[in-house]
Amino acid sequence: MDRSTKLKGTVLGGLCLTAAALLASIAGTPQAAEARPDDSGVASTITLTGVVRDFKGVSENGGHADFEITPNGGYGHYAANIAATLDADGKPTFTGTGKRVATEWTDNRGRNINPSMFDSSRGDRAGAWGAASTGGLTTAARFAQWFRDVPNVNSSAPLSITLVWDAQNRKYVFDDRNDQLYSSRGGFFPINNQLYGNTPGQQKNFHFTYELNTEFVYHRGQGQVFQFRGDDDVWVFIDNKLVIDIGGIHSAVEQVVELDRLAWLEDNKIYSLKFFFAERHTTQSNFRIETTLNLRNAELPNTSNLYD
Predict the structure, then answer these.
(1) Is 35 within 8 Å of 171 (Cβ atoms)?
(2) Whole-angstrom distance, CA of residue 86 vs CA of residue 184
(3) In percent, how much of the chain has pLDDT > 70?
(4) Vertex 53, ends 134 and 200: CA angle to 5°?
(5) Which candidate, 53, 256, 303, 308, has a CA 20 to 30 Å from the CA of 160?
(6) Per-residue pLDDT for 209 more than 80?
């Protein structure tokens, strides 16, 4: 593997900065130039470092019940099974109050949105709910293990991805189809032959989660967006509030959030964006982030494994 694509061996510590100091830092570095329509000085790439956690499938010795499970409502997109805010540890919480999404909710441009973001006054179109289901999440206790290091349940390591500036669309993009490493692997498979090793009977390592803890500066009226397309489960929280909700085991599903819809955000303030992803089924792994946000790494949790 190329050195530039190896899992990083140094865990990043959090920077303790005041909002004013961080804003000054952002203003003074090329990477931090915000992606505005009149901005020609944006950085060509942004590298974000998160935590990948490997699990074993339910049929393996020591396997996790939520991985390689068939949801009782069938494969598909499920929403509203996660609490609308993060817990005291900054992690999502299972509620089990969700349903299958029979028809997607969309904005006035036809883009999928979190059903809780629906606003008819903006021209959004309502979707439709199917049957109630947890989408293949079994219990709150088991779900709590997805994004925490738990001995004999998962194995973790730091993992970096690099978003590339798309000058034509004026967005930062990470797309496993275009990334040199992942396109050669046929999808987002970051830990093949690593941690617990490849999934039995497969040439790839499925059954993992990925967590990113980032921050950004909000600029009201600048059209800032964050969009994800992939499988399986994805939840995105801004300022600890759920803004993208793509639960369940499914083929690639997309959602977008326009930050100007988030009425509580204040102009020129620093906010967190926390991203939680799970690959739970041995079929495919798609992963695409597209955003105008100039995201910066926040504190990275310790991990159980480090790589050179």
Answers:
(1) yes
(2) 35
(3) 85
(4) 85
(5) 256
(6) yes
* Separation between Cα atoms, residue 244 and residue 234, nearest integer Å: 7
DSSP string, 261-307: G-TT--TT-EEEEEEEEEE-STT---EEEEES---EE-PPPP-S---
What sign does the dihedral 261-263-269-270 (CA atoms) show?
negative
Question: What's the pTM?
Answer: 0.86
Report residue 301 as tokens. 């949790």
Strands 241-246 and 287-291, sheet pairing: unpaired
What is the distance between the alpha carbons of residues 225 and 35, in angstroms, rounded to a whole number?
A: 11
No. of H helices and E strands in the chain?
3, 14
Distance CA 233, CA 98 (A): 13
Residues 251-267 have a mean pLDDT of: 97
Residue 19, pLDDT > 60, answer no
What are the CA-CA distances from residue 115 to residues 223, 259, 278 (Å)? 20, 15, 20
Question: Mean pLDDT across the stretch 69-84?
Answer: 96
Sequence-ordered strand ranges (E) for 143-182? 155-166, 171-175
Residues 116, 85, 284, 224: is their CA dihedral positive or negative?
A: positive
* pLDDT top residue among 71 and 35: 71
Strand partners, 31: none
**Both tokens assigned to 214:** 């980032």
The alpha helices in the chain, defined as continuous H runs, are: 19-27, 140-143, 180-185
